[in-house]
Batch of 2 targets.
Target 1
Amino acid sequence: MGRRHDPMLLRAADPSTVGAMLPPGDRFSGRPRRYHDAVGATDLLTIVECGDPILRRPADPVDTVDLASEEMQHLIGQMRATMEAAPGVGLAAPQVGRSIQLAVLADGPERWGQLSEEERTARERGPLDFTVLVNPVVHPIDAGAGRVSFFEGCLSVPGLMGVVARHRAVRVEALDADGTPLARVFSGWAARIVQHEFDHLLGRLYLDRVETRSLSSSENYVRYWAGRPPSEAAHGLGFTLD
Ligand code: NI
């Protein structure tokens, strides 16, 4: 997902549903584990950009035995550090050259840039504690929620932003970094992040769903559309909102 001025760095509505998910302890060794503490700045991963076939390949499920390995736990730490350094609100393993069903997510005030309170409210963007999703399955929750359209971006598609309609809320079944089954509802901006990262694991990019007429360079996004409702971009660029 995107950079500091990127609305993808926006919010998830209900802090109770995007709840307090701290880095899990290491149930394999019994020691507490803090992924990013184990990763130095020189350990950042290179982010793969669109055009690389790995981004277009459905990723393989992660075996739970492999998940417990030092190598995999280190990868999670590297992905967290790489996401934070970008900065972004989500990163999927194919984006760092690994075709496995693993994604990391996080959002918070340090990523909200110049968003006004009004914009954050419109996007239902709130704090999302660091979350690891392994082998996720995502179910839209459509009853009364519908879809919402906002600009988003992707670290694998540098320099572009575009409007994507996404489900306002989703239910996710996955494993966490520990291999513990997790079932959780994400809404608002967190639901957008989850859907974006889940798409990566299926070999999809937001470009496959974007309103093509909304596509804007980062500079023009800041110049014309940041701080304005998507309806104004729809009017100005000639597309229809869902
Ligand atoms: Ni992305």
Target 2
Amino acid sequence: MRLSVIGCGYLGAVHAASMAKLGHDVVGIDVDQAKVNELAAGRAPFFEPGLPELLAESQATGRLKFSTDLADAAGADVHFVCVGTPQRKGEYAADLRFVDAAVAGLAPYLKPGNIVVGKSTVPVGTAARLADQLAEDAPGAVLAWNPEFLREGHAVQDTLSPDRFVYGVPDGAAGTAAVAALDEVYAAPLSTGTPRLTVDYATAELVKTAANSFLATKISFINAMAEVCEASGADVSALADAIGMDDRIGRKFLNAGVGFGGGCLPKDIRAFMARAGELGADQALTFLREVDAINMRRRSKVVEMTREICGGSLMGKRVTILGAAFKPESDDVRDSPALSAAAQMQLQGATVTVTDPEALQNAKGRFPELTYEPVTENALLNAHAVVLLTEWKEYRNLDPAATAALVTDTNIIDGRNVLDPAAWRTAGWTYRSMGRP
Ligand code: UDX
């Protein structure tokens, strides 16, 4: 099939490359010329495992092209909208201007029978509004909403073999042209038994928001338990192992620590609250306010722990932060708990040095006031406290004795509960973690 993908960020670039891998002819469109140049040259403009290989392969097959001109989408049968829906400045609501612009910009190039597929995460009600707009601007084109559930760091695998496909189509009608087109796009993964659900627009939009809200709630639940563990001397990791053995609960997404960040969970729960308010259903989601509050408290908590381990004040202390990305296997620093805590420590008078294997360039752009050092050993030199906030493998595997030789004071805070307390204490460290004694 001939496909276009509008928006080539973390979602769109991976989607475009994955669709080419499935055998389709794909054009990716983005307003950012530098990004388009990189992608067109077969280089990934951000860190995502597996993406460089897919881009290289598509160079060889010639199935994937990139452009800044929406007119180049004209020949496609199915158009995927993969642009961002960030949080509006100073508000909880999502900023829909990129989605609106993508659909309005596509309209003149659409032919009757073309399918426009929204993949961006949007407030419930957006698809119905866009469908009305398309009916006026591009008669005969059909809108479908097909949310994306990919995790950064696993995006290629999640796109090529997802847990499920959700198709939101007008009235949830199964036998429509949009369903047939999506089935053809995803023929390969569907043939291996990937389930697919056909629902109405509103349900499709809500599946995504509800899934992310549930994941955020699960993390904040275990972080709330971490707070109780801290107050009572219990161990939150052992608690998570034990409750996670109940199949109804499950162990995944029960890792306590500095909490969730990134371009999705924080802004999605806020946009969901804002939308529920507009719909008069705000009471249904007041618990998400608590989920957000628990999450933000963990960032302050790690700052407080660092102050304590430094003897009660951060003034004049050198603090090394291990990790800048919001999670490992990503260079994304949007709403990164690590950088947020690092900035708070710097404000309290510490000299903060941040290291990360992939995210330093992005971090510098957002927090220019911090010091950045790519080599872990150099970043650790003469530190009064070391704080692990993103659990990259190289930090999980640090040798306590070798690390002790580099620092001034052997103080470590494990903000992701991934180090072995006994090994670090045996090597002479004062070790503290979040929710474990
Ligand atoms: C998330 C959803 O998982 C994905 O399905 C959706 O499409 C987009 O949002 P992503 O933001 O890539 O994906 O990251 P995810 O792996 O979900 O992690 C989110 C944050 O939660 C990270 O900061 C991570 O460190 C944190 N986290 C995750 C925890 O603190 N504890 C956990 O147990 C799991």
